[in-house]
Amino acid sequence: MSEFALGESVFGTDALSVQKLFNVEGWVAVVTGGGTGLGLVTAAALAENGCKVYISGRRLDVLEKAAKAASPKNGKGQIIPVQGDVGTKEGIIKLREAVEKNEKWLNILVNNAGVSEPHGEIDDCEQTPEGVSKEMFEKESFETWANTHRINTASYHFTTFAFLPLLCAAKSKGGFREAGNVINVASLSGITRTSQHGQFNYNSGKAATRHLSLMLSTDFARRGFGVRVNCINPGYFPSGMSVKDVPKDDPEAAANLFKTKYAIPFGIVGTAKDYAQTIFGIVTNEYMTGCDIVIDGGWLATQSRCLALFFRRSG
To answer: Is residue 93 pLDDT above 60, yes or no?
Structure first.
């Protein structure tokens, strides 16, 4: 295709305006774990721009409070709470039935539900083989490991396949140009080589989520389903599972905290705006699948540098 033919349909039109590039008005979305944190940010951003969003979680009161607080101001979008534990097939079926009752297709599935179980503190125990062994063997259980992987990885697998027909129907029945697409929320913890003080269970689960996303994107593409699957790896964002001790009235102290305690070279944590911009870029880009996107303010780059310095000094 020539350059002229490639641009012929868009140059001289408003097709490249921001409003058209990231338009989700009239779309239908599901966000698991959408009642708090980045899940709620995702749901609120989509709804504010005209998307009908179903949010799920185990606690109905939390979901209803979130839906009310994040209700879109322009009246075009909508947030609908659905109680259901996606860590079980029964919960996933309940969520799917709630969506199927009112919708014929699904444009966006955001697998966001996540847990962080207790773990041994590998850096705070006696730094001997015996001390580390005791800390990591006796203070952890198979149950906490299983639950971490059940929610953070297995639920993404089962939820995606449960909604696959509805995702495909976005194109076949909804008349959209593309089938629905999936975002799996992993973490920089699934990329870093450190255990981050001993959270082997969480980090390995997030690493598994990243590879699950790659396999799903490949198998769906090979079968011609048209369903895109991408993975997003957030760094530090203010939430119940992340940054909690930010000095609100002292920007300099906050920047210093981020650079020292959290090792973020930009000296900031992510904001709702940063996250929403990433979400919109993924869900609207029809040529994007199998991608592993990092949004971390340079944190992983810092970790790579620390490793390089360590090995240089040890060599």
So the answer is: yes
